Amino acid sequence: MSHPAEGPSPDPRGVVIGPLDLAARVDDALAVQALAFGLTDDEIGVRRHIVLRHLATPGARALGATSETGRLVGFVYGLPNHRAHWWSTVVAPYLRAEGHEGWLDDSFVITELHVHPGHQKRGIGRTLITELTDGAAQPRSILSAIDAATPAHGLYRELGYRDLARPVHFPSAQSPYVVMGAHLPLRRRRA
Ligand SMILES: CC(C)(COP(=O)(O)OP(=O)(O)OC[C@H]1O[C@@H](n2cnc3c(N)ncnc32)[C@H](O)[C@@H]1OP(=O)(O)O)[C@@H](O)C(=O)NCCC(=O)NCCS
After folding, report:
1. Which CATH architecture fits 15-183?
2. Residue ranges of the N-acetyltransferase domain (predicted)?
């Protein structure tokens, strides 16, 4: 006995995940980041310039999670790592000290991943980072996260990222960070 044909069912999360024109939606994205991660108005202004500069890098890519009303509720972006980039110059000595400097080559860097607090814990963050890295030309991925037992750190570990160097201190940040790396594709959720 077959069921009657059904039309496409709405995503249970009520969002569509797909390519994002982040340059066009940068203010919406930073508003999500401000709520999820906490940013002052001054920091938003600084981040805006940084994001737009990153997007001019060859190979930079972004995905967004958009609600049925068109509201951006999550985003991720990243770019092929380059040793001359500011982030790389900061983390390189820490990776070198641990014998992991080679991770700076042939790696796709996850620069930002944020989900609006009202939409967290529904699998959106996992889908965003998994789909973005699935499209990377590089065989591995690196990122930095706050060095604490946060949801982000838990997610990254579940996806197969391991700690490469910690604590890592960025000049502009008060909290220590951990640099993590994973071979691609990222690990899928166990059935
Ligand atoms: C990190 C973040 C993007 C995760 O997004 P999300 O959509 O809530 O994550 P998901 O629902 O896809 O969760 C995936 C996994 O992450 C982990 N996770 C998510 N929320 C968690 C929580 N509150 N506590 C512990 N682990 C958590 C779990 O392992 C979860 O897997 P599970 O659903 O099988 O339990 C989101 O929490 C966020 O925006 N945080 C604030 C901003 C931030 O820290 N960004 C990263 C900067 S490095």
Report:
1. 3-Layer(aba) Sandwich (3.40)
2. 15-185
148: which 2 tokens?
């604490």
Q: Is the C-beta atom of 76 inside 6 A of ligand 1?
A: no
Which tens digit of pLDDT belongs to each residue from 1-55? Answer: 344 444 444 476 789 999 999 999 999 999 999 999 999 999 999 999 999 999 9
**Closest-CA residue to 66 (of 30, 23, 119):** 119
The residue extents of the domains of the chain are: 15-183
Q: Do the Cβ atoms of 126 and 152 come closer than 8 Å? A: no
Q: How far is the CA of 125 from the centre of ligand 1 (A)?
A: 6
Rounded Cα distance between 161 and 159, Å, is: 6
pTM above 0.85, yes or no: yes
User: Ligand 1 in contact with 122 (CB < 6 A)?
Assistant: yes
